[in-house]
Structure prediction request, 52 residues.
Amino acid sequence: MSDHKTFLSNIIIHSFATAHAIAAASLAQTMVGDEATLTALTIGMIITLSKL
Prediction:
């Protein structure tokens, strides 16, 4: 993997980790819950990384 792809992967992973933290903190104590949102974010991250 080239340095450019490694850098982009790191940016993508850290961005999704931040989004996960915000979603979990926002939705954890609600009636809706955070499971669906966190699952969607994880799938989005996997798809984004697979397209690099």
About this structure: Residues 5 and 11 are 10 Å apart (CA to CA). Residues 3-50 form one domain. The radius of gyration is 13 Å.
